[in-house]
Amino acid sequence: MLMIVFLVVGSGLKAQKRDTLYSEDKSLTDGFIGLSPKGDSTFRIVQVEAKFPDGWVGWRKYLVKNLNSSLGNKYIKIPKGEKSAKATVNVIFLIDKEGNVSDVTADSLSTSTVNEKLVEEAKRVIKDGPKWIPAWQRGHTVSYRVKQKITFVATKD
Fold first, then answer.
1. d(CA 142, CA 43)
2. For residues 94 and 15, what is the distance between their CA atoms, to the nearest angstrom?
3. Is the N end or the C end of the chain the one with fewer CB atoms within 10 Å?
């Protein structure tokens, strides 16, 4: 069994309009959070978010089809007396201004509490994915950081 949780990137974000996000945190200037490994500006708050070619439904279908969710039964220990257990990997990745996926990492909580094989599988499925439609800020494509939770579930037969 596989559980996929979708997150909005960044903290303090609220939807203002369908494609516009803003932050109440005045210390975030235009949502700029730094430079990508290629030296491009990277944003957490943008006018139009990066998106998977077939939207969020397509993204979910891609993950379900391509993630080896059976690894959950192999690498998650089910506590005695329980019928199931789960482990969540928080994957963070960059969609560059051309729509390429790069800089795929797992957060430190995931790497310290989840089996390494599950972390690697979650990162692999993100890395191997197709190009995305890049984010837009001030009329230009920009790099955009995405956070995705992938939850593996182990069940007893």
1. 7
2. 21
3. C
Count of C-beta atoms within a 10 Å radius of residue 1: 13
pLDDT along the chain (157 residues), means of 10: 43 28 39 57 70 94 95 95 95 96 93 94 97 89 92 90
* Tokens of residue 17, six digits: 């309009």
Distance CA 82, CA 44 (A): 39
Q: Report how far residue 101's alpha carbon sits from residue 109's, in angstroms, rounded to the nearest whole number.
A: 22
Structure tokens at 75: 């690498």
Query: At residue 34, what are phi and psi to the nearest 5 degrees?
Result: 140, -170
pTM of model > 0.85: no
**Bridge partners, 73 (sequence order):** none
**Phi and psi, residue 98, nearest 5°:** -100, -5
Chain Cα centroid distance, residue 151: 12
